[in-house]
Amino acid sequence: MSATATLSIRVPLETRRWLERFAKRRGSAGMAATRILEEARRREDFPAVEFRDTRLGRVALVQGTRVQVGFVYGQTLGDSTLNAEKLAESFAWPRWKAAGVLAYLQEFAEECRQEWEDLSSSEVHGLKRVLPDMEHREFSSL
Predict the structure, then answer these.
(1) Burial class (CB in 10 A: 0-12, 13-18, 19+), 113
(2) pLDDT tens-digit profile of 62-120?
(3) Domain spans in the chain, listed from the N-terminal domain onward
């Protein structure tokens, strides 16, 4: 776990009330505020990434798309030749977006790996409910 520091701030009363309502779905007000600040920092540092609530919880997505960054991580596994140009071409994204996603993947590799595993597992289980005789085969090439 990374080092933490305590921060005491004043916010408008209505903001505090909103934070308390927001926190009901996410733990304590302090945990929710930490998450909001961390996401704001990441959006500032990596404009190609945004955060949304999904059925898997709060996840990073490629800005302006429905593509989870964890999915991109899974698609990049085992491709030592991957670069921003190749990723941009594969997904029909501008190069700046592909480069930003790759930088995010590098900075938060373990988190992205976990999101990929969660996404893969949930998709397989969801399909198994609908298609009980389905066989699962792994692949991850672009």
Answers:
(1) middle
(2) 999 999 999 999 989 888 889 999 999 999 999 999 999 999 999 999 999 999 998 88
(3) 11-45, 47-142
Burial readout 4-27 (b: 16 or more C-beta within 10 A, e: otherwise): eeeeeeeeeeeeeeebeeebeebe
Give the tokens for residue 63.
């800005």
Tracing tokens 């959006």 back to the chain, one arrives at: 43
**Could you give the CA distance from residue 24 to residue 28 in angstroms, rounded to a whole number?**
7
- Gap between the Cα atoms of 85 and 89, Å rounded: 6
The verdict on pTM exceeding 0.85 is no
Q: How far apart are CA 134 and CA 142, in angstroms?
A: 23
Structure tokens, 19: 């934070």
